[in-house]
Amino acid sequence: MKFFIDTANLDEIRTAHRWGIVDGVTTNPSLIAKEGGDFISTIAEICTIVDGPVSAEVVAEDADTMVRQGKLLARVHDNVVVKVPLTVEGITATSRLSAEGIKTNVTLCFQPMQALLAAKAGATYISPFIGRIDDISWGGTELIAQIVEIYSNYPDLDTQVLAASIRHPAHMVECALAGAHVATIPFGAMRKLFNHPLTTSGNAAFTKAWEGVPDSDIEGQVTAWLAKNGR
Ligand code: E4P
Asked: How far is the CA of 102 from the centre of ligand 1 (A)?
């Protein structure tokens, strides 16, 4: 499962990128507005940090405008993926953008047949919003499992399932078990993936034990050993 980071905050993207586990970035109009910066400069800057798909969303009601916006966004950087809402006009725009070889991420998916529509329109990614489904007392990760199963029934469809609206590490476990191709994760939830109290206490115990070792200089010892053994 690929990990995208779900933010427009450049510091968060730089930090997570340093961890070496970020395969791409998703943004949406709310995330861009929250950071307060210029939309296109932000997207262009993100593309210099992460060498992977970067979703930038169109904001329009009609397919013609979405297609025009999408074509412009796709020119900003080769890694830009045009994010399109799952409306009649959005699917129409997706179909037209896909026909021109422009990568798309169809967003705001809340039921499996919407995902099939996006795949038929040639979407590169479908984004089911699992947290928002949980918020209204259904099962967000059940939706992921249904879409993965439906897509696998029709191998000619190559749309990838991009689990979105993730809120916590348990969502990630369920997405991975369900076979999501990608999960897009807010910075805070991504940071929590590292945490386990037994990792923390175990690491502290190893560090303390090492303080009792007579020569604890690993680099010095290894360098000397390598020189002595001609390696
Ligand atoms: C990403 O593509 C989505 O826009 C995002 O995950 C939505 O998350 P939210 O439901 O927390 O706003």
From this structure: 22
In a shared domain, residues 182 and 205: no
* The total number of structural domains that make up the chain: 2
Structural domain boundaries enclosing 203: 199-228
Which of 71, 83, 103, 208 is the catalytic position? 83
Please tell me the pTM assigned to this model: 0.95
Q: Are residues 169 and 55 in the same domain?
A: yes
Task: For ligand 1, pick from 86, 165, 182, 184 the residue to mutate: most ligand atoms within 8 Å of CB.
Answer: 165
Token pair for residue 163? 């689990």
What is the distance in A from the centroid of ligand 1 to the CA of 132? Answer: 8
pLDDT grade, residue 226 (50/70/90)?
Answer: very high
**CATH number of the domain bearing residue 40:** 3.20.20.70
> In the annotation, is 34 catalytic?
no
